[in-house]
Amino acid sequence: MTESASRQREVEQVLRSVAPDLLGYFLRRTPSPEDAADMVSETLAATWLSTSKVPQEPEQARMWVFGVARNVLRHHHRSGSRRSALAEQLAAAVRQAQTTTVHGVDEDALDVQLAVAALPTQLAELIRLVHWDGFSIEQAARLQQIPASTARSRHARAKQLLKERLEAPVKR
Hints:
The protein is mostly helical. It has helices at 3-27, 33-49, 58-78, 85-99, 107-118, 121-132, 137-144, 148-167. The chain has 8 helices and no strands.
């Protein structure tokens, strides 16, 4: 097996292992499951086209792929104004469904989701990366391209804001 073929197999293995995590990452950040699936495909394709740039160490490769995913997500948000009216209606329906209590929905989980969504964007993203996506604070700092000390102080601030919001009487 050539070195190139071996490298392609390594990257393929990284992509297979990270794909479910990517889908979760995008599903938590966009109201449309279809958009999330498209962004996973775009991230995988971009990574595959950059096989030579993917780090060889598995954890570093995972971080690199999530960096690509972050750029894909940023591009998606920038192009949001060009989405069709149908996509906007679907997003509104998903938001409505998230705030409507349905039989079997854990109300505590809904309260936490709403509290995180109410945080300032940078704090909410840090909480999602650390507590929902399983990154360490230092890894989340690298993904957000901020110093680890900044991430630690933002994380502490976000936790304090969440505690205050979740302890306050719930208004529905």
